[in-house]
Specification:
single chain; 210 residues; mainly alpha; two-stranded antiparallel ribbon; elongated; binds protoporphyrin IX containing FE
Length: 210
């Protein structure tokens, strides 16, 4: 694979934003878990949790400022669902055990990555809004504050489940493991782009970009 031709996938700004987001998320889970379990912890943990809530948010304005095209590419792709995305999700359980055949050509993000993106965006909005309400509780009606707690907890549980799947596919699953190189070096092997993101690969060919 070392001599293989590669294709540019992510800018350095996307990579910085992704890892800032990922580290913040992990720290939010680690610092939030004792609060969720009601374990008695030093007050400073609540402050650390809030600091990482802010760093979790920062990648969005950072991307809009530094790489609007990359940001738009992600958000537009995440919400554009076509037949081939649903077909991907239908064969995905077989793909997991390496038995899927005739997977239709996929866009820059495949159906599973689009689903991950949509769940991440919705989950992040829910977590940020409920977190904000709990942080500044004196500004909100009591009933809203009461609801914010269970919704924040349920949101965290769902997001953790989504992220566990996402991490497995990025570093564990043999077929999709080359994607990790995209999020570290910014490039992926050309053969991987062709096999896993055929529609994107065809577009690059048409535009003479590879
Ligand atoms: C900590 C371990 C993580 C690893 C190893 C990892 C790995 C990756 C990789 C390799 C990609 C690029 C896939 C592609 O080629 O399109 C990616 C994309 C992405 N990551 Fe992560 N990630 C991690 C954590 C997170 C966290 C914590 C979040 C959100 C809170 C997140 C959200 C996303 C989203 C929304 C995308 C774009 C859609 C997708 O490719 O599924 N990631 N990640």
């Amino acid at each position: 694979m070392s001599n293989e031709r590669t294709v540019k996938r992510f800018s350095k700004f996307v990579i910085i934003a992704h890892w800032t987001n990922a580290i913040s998320f992990i720290m939010l889970v680690l610092t939030g878990l004792p609060l969720f379990l009601g374990i008695s912890v030093p007050d400073v943990l609540q402050i650390v949790h809030r600091v990482f809530a802010v760093t979790f948010l920062l990648p969005t304005p950072f991307m809009i400022l530094m790489d609007r095209k990359g940001f738009m590419n992600w958000t537009k792709n995440a919400w554009s669902w076509k037949k081939h995305d649903f077909q991907f999700l239908a064969v995905f359980p077989l793909e997991l055990i390496g038995k899927a055949k005739n997977i239709p050509k996929q866009d820059f993000f495949n159906g599973g990555q689009k689903l991950n993106s949509v769940l991440t965006i919705i989950g992040a909005i829910i977590m940020v809004c409920t977190g904000f309400i709990m942080w500044f509780k004196e500004l909100f009606p009591k009933v809203l504050v009461q609801w914010a707690y269970p919704v924040h907890d349920a949101g965290m549980a769902i997001m953790v489940a989504v992220i566990i799947g996402h991490v497995y596919l990025s570093v564990g699953h043999p077929a999709s493991r080359p994607s990790f190189m995209g999020m570290t070096k910014g490039v992926v092997p050309e053969s991987y782009a062709k096999e896993h993101h055929g529609r994107w690969y065809d577009e690059l060919k048409e535009k003479n970009e590879i």
